Amino acid sequence: ERVKCMLYYIFYLVHVRHVVLVLSGKGGVGKSTITTELALALRQAGKRVGILDVDLCGPSIPRMLSVGRPDVHQCDSGWVPVYTDAQKSLALMSIGFLLEDPDEAIVWRGPKKTALIGQFVSDVAWGELDVLLVDTPPGTSDEHLAVLENLKKHRVDGAVLVTTPQAVSTGDVRREITFCNKTGVRILGIIENMRMQQYILEGGWGRAGQTDRISIFR
Ligand SMILES: Nc1ncnc2c1ncn2[C@@H]1O[C@H](COP(=O)(O)OP(=O)(O)O)[C@@H](O)[C@H]1O
Ligand SMILES: [Mg+2]
Protein backbone atom coordinates (compact mmCIF):
# COMPACT_ATOMS: atom_id res chain seq x y z
CA GLU A 1 0.00 0.00 0.00
CA ARG A 2 2.83 2.35 0.92
CA VAL A 3 4.68 1.67 -2.34
CA LYS A 4 1.51 2.28 -4.25
CA CYS A 5 1.13 5.57 -2.42
CA MET A 6 4.70 6.59 -3.18
CA LEU A 7 4.39 5.69 -6.83
CA TYR A 8 1.22 7.66 -7.04
CA TYR A 9 2.92 10.60 -5.34
CA ILE A 10 5.80 10.56 -7.82
CA PHE A 11 3.43 10.18 -10.74
CA TYR A 12 1.42 13.10 -9.46
CA LEU A 13 4.47 15.27 -8.95
CA VAL A 14 5.91 14.77 -12.40
CA HIS A 15 2.71 15.26 -14.20
CA VAL A 16 1.85 18.85 -13.38
CA ARG A 17 4.77 20.83 -14.76
CA HIS A 18 3.90 24.39 -13.80
CA VAL A 19 1.54 25.88 -11.26
CA VAL A 20 0.48 29.51 -11.50
CA LEU A 21 -1.79 31.24 -9.00
CA VAL A 22 -4.09 34.03 -10.11
CA LEU A 23 -4.60 36.48 -7.25
CA SER A 24 -6.55 39.68 -6.69
CA GLY A 25 -7.22 41.91 -3.72
CA LYS A 26 -10.87 42.36 -4.55
CA GLY A 27 -13.64 40.46 -6.26
CA GLY A 28 -14.94 41.71 -9.58
CA VAL A 29 -11.60 42.82 -11.02
CA GLY A 30 -11.60 40.09 -13.66
CA LYS A 31 -9.59 37.34 -11.98
CA SER A 32 -11.75 34.50 -13.30
CA THR A 33 -11.93 36.10 -16.74
CA ILE A 34 -8.14 36.37 -16.87
CA THR A 35 -7.71 32.81 -15.61
CA THR A 36 -10.01 31.58 -18.36
CA GLU A 37 -8.32 33.69 -21.02
CA LEU A 38 -4.87 32.52 -19.93
CA ALA A 39 -6.04 28.91 -20.07
CA LEU A 40 -7.49 29.31 -23.55
CA ALA A 41 -4.37 31.10 -24.79
CA LEU A 42 -2.10 28.38 -23.40
CA ARG A 43 -4.27 25.70 -24.94
CA GLN A 44 -4.09 27.56 -28.22
CA ALA A 45 -0.30 27.37 -27.88
CA GLY A 46 -0.59 23.59 -27.69
CA LYS A 47 -0.29 23.18 -23.93
CA ARG A 48 -2.32 20.90 -21.74
CA VAL A 49 -3.96 23.15 -19.19
CA GLY A 50 -5.85 22.68 -15.95
CA ILE A 51 -7.90 25.20 -14.03
CA LEU A 52 -8.46 24.76 -10.33
CA ASP A 53 -11.31 27.04 -9.31
CA VAL A 54 -11.06 27.54 -5.57
CA ASP A 55 -13.14 30.68 -5.36
CA LEU A 56 -15.72 29.74 -2.76
CA CYS A 57 -17.29 33.20 -2.92
CA GLY A 58 -18.26 32.70 -6.52
CA PRO A 59 -16.98 29.77 -8.54
CA SER A 60 -17.56 31.35 -11.94
CA ILE A 61 -15.16 29.44 -14.20
CA PRO A 62 -17.65 26.64 -15.03
CA ARG A 63 -20.03 29.26 -16.37
CA MET A 64 -17.30 31.00 -18.35
CA LEU A 65 -16.37 27.71 -20.00
CA SER A 66 -20.03 26.68 -20.42
CA VAL A 67 -19.55 23.56 -18.38
CA GLY A 68 -22.56 23.96 -16.11
CA ARG A 69 -22.68 21.69 -13.09
CA PRO A 70 -21.56 18.23 -14.12
CA ASP A 71 -21.47 15.27 -11.75
CA VAL A 72 -17.92 14.74 -10.67
CA HIS A 73 -16.45 11.38 -9.75
CA GLN A 74 -13.68 10.14 -7.55
CA CYS A 75 -11.10 7.59 -8.62
CA ASP A 76 -8.31 6.05 -6.52
CA SER A 77 -6.16 9.11 -6.98
CA GLY A 78 -8.80 11.75 -6.28
CA TRP A 79 -11.46 13.83 -7.98
CA VAL A 80 -11.54 13.43 -11.73
CA PRO A 81 -11.53 16.83 -13.45
CA VAL A 82 -14.04 17.72 -16.11
CA TYR A 83 -12.69 18.08 -19.64
CA THR A 84 -14.06 20.85 -21.78
CA ASP A 85 -12.98 19.33 -25.08
CA ALA A 86 -12.61 15.96 -26.75
CA GLN A 87 -8.80 16.26 -26.89
CA LYS A 88 -8.75 16.62 -23.11
CA SER A 89 -6.50 19.65 -23.41
CA LEU A 90 -8.43 21.76 -20.92
CA ALA A 91 -9.29 20.21 -17.57
CA LEU A 92 -11.36 21.93 -14.94
CA MET A 93 -12.07 21.25 -11.32
CA SER A 94 -14.24 23.72 -9.49
CA ILE A 95 -15.19 23.78 -5.86
CA GLY A 96 -18.62 24.68 -7.20
CA PHE A 97 -19.00 21.11 -8.53
CA LEU A 98 -18.85 19.79 -4.99
CA LEU A 99 -21.39 22.12 -3.46
CA GLU A 100 -24.93 20.79 -3.15
CA ASP A 101 -26.22 24.29 -3.20
CA PRO A 102 -24.18 27.18 -4.61
CA ASP A 103 -25.13 29.36 -1.64
CA GLU A 104 -23.89 26.77 0.81
CA ALA A 105 -20.32 28.07 0.93
CA ILE A 106 -21.40 31.36 2.35
CA VAL A 107 -22.29 29.80 5.71
CA TRP A 108 -19.01 27.97 6.17
CA ARG A 109 -16.59 29.56 8.52
CA GLY A 110 -12.91 29.55 9.36
CA PRO A 111 -11.56 26.07 10.07
CA LYS A 112 -14.19 24.17 8.11
CA LYS A 113 -13.61 26.31 5.05
CA THR A 114 -9.83 26.04 5.30
CA ALA A 115 -9.94 22.26 5.76
CA LEU A 116 -12.25 21.83 2.81
CA ILE A 117 -10.10 23.99 0.56
CA GLY A 118 -6.97 22.13 1.62
CA GLN A 119 -8.49 18.78 0.85
CA PHE A 120 -9.97 19.97 -2.39
CA VAL A 121 -6.68 21.42 -3.64
CA SER A 122 -4.67 18.29 -2.92
CA ASP A 123 -7.24 15.75 -4.10
CA VAL A 124 -7.59 16.30 -7.82
CA ALA A 125 -6.24 13.66 -10.21
CA TRP A 126 -4.94 16.00 -12.89
CA GLY A 127 -3.05 13.46 -14.93
CA GLU A 128 -0.56 15.07 -17.27
CA LEU A 129 -0.63 18.87 -17.43
CA ASP A 130 1.76 21.53 -18.70
CA VAL A 131 0.20 24.32 -16.66
CA LEU A 132 -2.22 24.40 -13.77
CA LEU A 133 -3.87 27.77 -13.19
CA VAL A 134 -5.44 28.37 -9.79
CA ASP A 135 -8.29 30.87 -9.49
CA THR A 136 -8.24 31.86 -5.82
CA PRO A 137 -10.77 33.76 -3.69
CA PRO A 138 -10.22 37.52 -3.49
CA GLY A 139 -7.93 38.85 -0.78
CA THR A 140 -5.13 37.33 1.23
CA SER A 141 -6.73 35.10 3.79
CA ASP A 142 -6.38 31.75 5.52
CA GLU A 143 -7.88 30.24 2.41
CA HIS A 144 -4.87 31.37 0.37
CA LEU A 145 -2.50 29.91 2.90
CA ALA A 146 -4.44 26.64 2.74
CA VAL A 147 -4.13 26.66 -1.05
CA LEU A 148 -0.38 27.24 -0.88
CA GLU A 149 0.13 24.68 1.85
CA ASN A 150 -1.67 22.01 -0.13
CA LEU A 151 -0.05 22.84 -3.42
CA LYS A 152 3.38 22.27 -1.92
CA LYS A 153 3.79 18.90 -3.52
CA HIS A 154 3.63 20.70 -6.83
CA ARG A 155 6.16 23.46 -7.27
CA VAL A 156 4.30 26.77 -7.40
CA ASP A 157 5.99 28.80 -10.14
CA GLY A 158 4.47 32.08 -9.11
CA ALA A 159 1.47 34.34 -9.17
CA VAL A 160 -0.20 36.63 -11.64
CA LEU A 161 -1.82 39.56 -9.83
CA VAL A 162 -4.95 41.01 -11.33
CA THR A 163 -6.06 44.50 -10.50
CA THR A 164 -8.02 47.44 -11.86
CA PRO A 165 -7.08 51.13 -11.89
CA GLN A 166 -9.39 51.71 -8.91
CA ALA A 167 -7.89 48.84 -6.90
CA VAL A 168 -4.38 50.17 -7.50
CA SER A 169 -5.34 53.42 -5.84
CA THR A 170 -6.85 51.67 -2.82
CA GLY A 171 -3.69 49.69 -2.16
CA ASP A 172 -5.16 46.22 -2.75
CA VAL A 173 -2.38 45.24 -5.06
CA ARG A 174 0.22 46.31 -2.50
CA ARG A 175 -1.30 43.88 0.00
CA GLU A 176 -1.10 41.14 -2.60
CA ILE A 177 2.55 41.94 -3.23
CA THR A 178 3.25 41.81 0.51
CA PHE A 179 1.46 38.47 0.71
CA CYS A 180 3.57 37.04 -2.11
CA ASN A 181 6.79 38.34 -0.57
CA LYS A 182 5.92 36.90 2.84
CA THR A 183 4.95 33.50 1.49
CA GLY A 184 7.84 33.34 -0.96
CA VAL A 185 5.64 33.22 -4.05
CA ARG A 186 7.28 34.84 -7.03
CA ILE A 187 5.24 37.51 -8.77
CA LEU A 188 5.20 36.68 -12.47
CA GLY A 189 3.32 39.79 -13.49
CA ILE A 190 0.57 42.26 -12.79
CA ILE A 191 -2.40 42.68 -15.08
CA GLU A 192 -4.22 45.96 -14.84
CA ASN A 193 -7.59 44.95 -16.18
CA MET A 194 -10.54 47.05 -17.27
CA ARG A 195 -8.35 50.05 -17.87
CA MET A 196 -10.40 50.92 -20.88
CA GLN A 197 -13.58 51.18 -18.83
CA GLN A 198 -11.75 53.49 -16.46
CA TYR A 199 -10.81 55.75 -19.36
CA ILE A 200 -14.41 55.88 -20.45
CA LEU A 201 -15.47 56.80 -16.93
CA GLU A 202 -12.78 59.43 -16.51
CA GLY A 203 -12.20 61.01 -19.83
CA GLY A 204 -14.92 60.10 -22.26
CA TRP A 205 -14.60 58.04 -25.41
CA GLY A 206 -11.63 59.96 -26.74
CA ARG A 207 -9.19 57.96 -24.67
CA ALA A 208 -11.01 54.66 -24.82
CA GLY A 209 -8.74 53.16 -27.47
CA GLN A 210 -6.18 52.23 -24.83
CA THR A 211 -5.70 48.55 -24.25
CA ASP A 212 -5.33 46.99 -20.85
CA ARG A 213 -1.88 47.29 -19.36
CA ILE A 214 0.04 44.15 -18.66
CA SER A 215 3.33 44.15 -16.82
CA ILE A 216 5.21 40.92 -17.09
CA PHE A 217 8.24 40.86 -14.86
CA ARG A 218 9.94 37.90 -16.26
N1 LIG B 1 -11.34 43.35 -19.64
C1 LIG B 1 -12.66 43.27 -19.42
N2 LIG B 1 -13.51 43.95 -20.19
C2 LIG B 1 -14.84 43.90 -19.96
N3 LIG B 1 -15.43 43.20 -19.00
C3 LIG B 1 -14.65 42.48 -18.18
C4 LIG B 1 -13.22 42.48 -18.35
N4 LIG B 1 -12.69 41.70 -17.38
C5 LIG B 1 -13.74 41.22 -16.66
N5 LIG B 1 -14.91 41.68 -17.12
C6 LIG B 1 -16.26 41.42 -16.57
O1 LIG B 1 -16.26 41.85 -15.21
C7 LIG B 1 -17.03 40.97 -14.39
C8 LIG B 1 -16.17 40.42 -13.25
O2 LIG B 1 -15.16 39.59 -13.79
P1 LIG B 1 -14.68 38.27 -13.06
O3 LIG B 1 -13.65 37.65 -13.93
O4 LIG B 1 -15.83 37.42 -12.65
O5 LIG B 1 -14.00 38.91 -11.77
P2 LIG B 1 -13.43 38.19 -10.44
O6 LIG B 1 -13.16 36.78 -10.75
O7 LIG B 1 -12.21 38.98 -10.12
O8 LIG B 1 -14.50 38.38 -9.40
C9 LIG B 1 -17.55 39.88 -15.31
O9 LIG B 1 -18.86 40.19 -15.67
C10 LIG B 1 -16.61 39.94 -16.51
O10 LIG B 1 -17.24 39.51 -17.67
MG1 LIG C 1 -13.97 35.06 -9.83
TrEMBL record:
Keywords: 4Fe-4S, ATP-binding, Iron, Iron-sulfur, Metal-binding, Nucleotide-binding. One of its GO terms (biological process) is iron-sulfur cluster assembly. Pfam families: ParA (PF10609). It comes from Mastacembelus armatus (zig-zag eel). This is NUBP iron-sulfur cluster assembly factor 2, cytosolic. HAMAP family: Mrp_NBP35. SUPFAM superfamilies: P-loop containing nucleoside triphosphate hydrolases (SSF52540). It comes from the Eukaryota. GO terms for cellular component: cytosol.
